[in-house]
């Protein structure tokens, strides 16, 4: 069966890009990365694409609309069916977001709608939450909004700093993003308003506690 053709937009390190490239090495994975675009020519992530023989190109227009036009043309030329933002640090022109509506996804390192925008891990620490995590969502014109596809939760530890929390969330991102792309590729997502229904999704049960319940039952 033909695999879903995915284009990835990056700005930097590209560890999420790598996490999307890796499972696609298995022919059974229903998606493949066919084009990587970076708005920064020096982005480390471009090397991941080069190593794997994936078409890649920098598009470094400072003008938002010009970037949108050129990126759009390149993605269409490559027959891209889904665009995945992976650490793409520029706000996209509304024309681009609308052109790819419901075929444009993003990963954000918080449990949206909490902590949108910059430094979400720092925001989580400042708010004193006991859990944070990451979210894959369809993109809408307002930053870090849009129907949520999947989330992963990680605990916040008492001795966390921004770096430690970011690393714990990032490890979850690398598992969540390929899963979300797989669900899209398998045609299992239906968007109803702001809610995404996932076909054949089993119910997740139980509650996580932080501090753990055992702390109280031990009389500590
Ligand atoms: C990730 O935490 C992603 O969620 C956020 O930016 C970071 C990018 O990391 N949007 P990488 O470039 O994928 O390593």
Key phrases:
single chain; 220 residues; alpha/beta; 9 strands; binds 5-O-phosphono-beta-D-ribofuranosylamine
Report on this structure:
- There is one protein chain.
- By secondary structure, this protein is an alpha/beta fold.
- The protein is built from 7 helices and 9 strands; from the N terminus they run βαβαβαβαβαββαββα.
- The protein has a 7-stranded mixed sheet with strand order 3-2-1-4-5-6-7, with helices on both faces. It has a two-stranded antiparallel sheet with strand order 8-9.
- Helix 1 runs parallel beside helix 2 and helix 1 (15-21) runs parallel beside helix 6.
- The N and C termini lie far apart (57 Å).
- 5-O-phosphono-beta-D-ribofuranosylamine binds next to helix 1, strand 5 and helix 6.
Blueprint of the fold:
Elements: E1 4-10, H1 15-21, E2 31-38, H2 45-52, E3 55-58, H3 64-77, E4 82-85, H4 94-99, E5 104-108, H5 120-127, E6 131-138, E7 148-155, H6 162-185, E8 189-192, E9 195-198, H7 213-217
Parallel strand pairs: 1-2, 1-4, 2-3, 4-5
Antiparallel strand pairs: 5-6, 6-7, 8-9
Helix pairs in contact: 1-2, 1-6
The structure holds 5-O-phosphono-beta-D-ribofuranosylamine (GRF).
Can you describe this structure in just a few lines?
The chain has 220 residues and is of the alpha/beta class. Helix content is 33%, strand content 24%. A seven-stranded mixed sheet has the order 3-2-1-4-5-6-7, with helices on both faces. Strands 8-9 form a two-stranded antiparallel sheet.
């Amino acid at each position: 069966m033909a695999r879903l053709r995915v284009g990835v937009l990056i700005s930097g390190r590209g560890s999420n890009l790598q996490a999307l490239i890796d499972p696609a090495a298995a022919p059974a994975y229903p998606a493949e990365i066919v084009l990587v675009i970076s708005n920064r020519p020096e982005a480390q992530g471009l090397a991941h694409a080069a190593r794997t023989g994936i078409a890649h190109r920098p598009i470094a227009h400072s003008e938002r609309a010009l970037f949108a036009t050129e990126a759009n043309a390149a993605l269409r030329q490559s027959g891209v069916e889904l665009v995945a933002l992976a650490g793409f640090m520029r706000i996209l022109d509304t024309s681009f977001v609308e052109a790819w509506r419901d075929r444009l996804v993003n990963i954000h390192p918080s449990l949206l709608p909490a902590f949108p925008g910059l430094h979400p891990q720092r925001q989580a620490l400042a708010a004193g939450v006991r859990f944070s995590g990451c979210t894959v969502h369809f993109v809408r014109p307002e930053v870090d909004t849009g129907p949520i596809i999947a989330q992963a939760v990680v605990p916040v530890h008492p001795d966390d700093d921004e770096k430690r929390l970011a690393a714990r969330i990032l490890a979850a991102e690398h598992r969540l993003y390929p899963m979300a792309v797989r669900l899209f590729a398998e045609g299992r997502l239906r968007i109803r308003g702001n809610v995404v229904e996932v076909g054949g999704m089993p119910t997740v049960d139980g509650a996580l506690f932080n501090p753990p319940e055992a702390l109280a039952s031990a009389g500590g």
